[in-house]
Amino acid sequence: MNTWYILGAGSLGTLWAARLARAGLPVKLLLRDSTSLSRYRSGGGLSLVENSQTSLYPIPAETAQGSTPIGRVLLACKAYDAEEAAASLAPRLSPGAEIILLQNGLGSQQAVAERLPKAHCIFASSTEGAFRDGPFRTVFAGQGHTWLGQPGQSAEPAWLNELSQAGIPHQWTANILGKLWRKLALNCAINPLTVLHGCQNGGLRDFPEEVATLCRELSELLLRAGQPEAASGLHEQVQGVIEHTAANYSSMYQDVQAGRRTEISFLLGYACHEGERLGLSLPQLKSLQQRLLAALQARGLPLT
Ligand code: NAP
């Protein structure tokens, strides 16, 4: 049985590692460096908080520089760290290794796949929610679902049953790019505006025209990018998300408030870049990107 190597003991990495380990599956964490490794070991393991109950999982860990060959790895870092993290693993990957990419947005997956042409890169799109509230301690904040797939590959791999064993809700799809594009479009229509207007998702009810124009441009982009399924009913879904999550602050809003780097290059940045590549005129999206970059710059946050 292949060991599940998990690179990145952050929110989603912990959530996956804890559930796989408690199902009795072999799991190993790959931490950034020896300082991080000794800090982890002194705490005795990963803590996961579920329904206010905390459990400690003493999952073995090492740094990426180890020497045991790796046949399967979950890349659970942020999109802006993915390419470098994947490159650091390259010398250890067995031929045909499986790499599951949990990153939000688009662009990082393609960069990893180019770096590791001999590996099987499986893209994932998750609606589960988790956040860190201490070192190696994660709170499971929202039930969700994870779509997995390899573009164009309809046959699902046999190891998916290990996710069922671990109680990780998931489904294989031949159209993983459509799922990732749709999530990216929802993000572009909501998250940047919540940063610019300084509001909860529900605050966007006050800007219906702005939201509608963005959805029109995003739908045009999705259609031209060959993603008709992702384009269909986008505006209605955006309106639904604004209503159903009216009291929530978007992840980008929270990142900006906390002074954390955003994944802008892989979300709105990717959308604008693809629009230009396809020769589209998307003035509202472009202006949104410029306003968001200015807001990040004003706060001294990275622009990529
Ligand atoms: P996170 O909590 O910031 O965790 C990322 C982890 O990766 C951190 O522990 C980071 O270590 C580690 N890391 C980065 N580069 C590394 C390297 N080279 N070697 C070893 N470890 C490395 O991020 P997250 O919230 O889990 O998000 C991961 C991805 O999932 C993102 O693309 C996000 O958008 C997506 N996502 C998240 C959620 C959610 O609810 N959290 C939901 C859906 C999708 P340091 O702390 O040392 O930097």
Give a quick precis of the structure.
The protein has 304 residues and is of the alpha/beta class. It has helices at 11-22, 34-43, 79-89, 108-115, 160-165, 176-197, 208-224, 228-231, 234-244, 251-257, 268-277, 283-298; strands at 4-7, 27-31, 46-50, 53-57, 61-63, 70-75, 93-101, 120-126, 129-134, 137-142, 146-149, 170-172. The chain is 44% helix and 21% strand.
Compile the SSE list and pairings:
Layout lengths: L3 E4 L3 H12 L4 E5 L2 H10 L2 E5 L2 E5 L3 E3 L6 E6 L3 H11 L3 E9 L6 H8 L4 E7 L2 E6 L2 E6 L3 E4 L10 H6 L4 E3 L3 H22 L10 H17 L3 H4 L2 H11 L6 H7 L10 H10 L5 H16 L6
Parallel strand pairs: 1-2, 1-6, 2-5, 3-10, 6-7, 7-8, 11-12
Antiparallel strand pairs: 3-4, 8-11, 9-10
Helix pairs in contact: 3-4, 6-7, 6-9, 6-10, 6-12, 11-12
The structure holds NADP nicotinamide-adenine-dinucleotide phosphate.
NADP nicotinamide-adenine-dinucleotide phosphate binds next to helix 1, strand 2, helix 3 and strand 9.
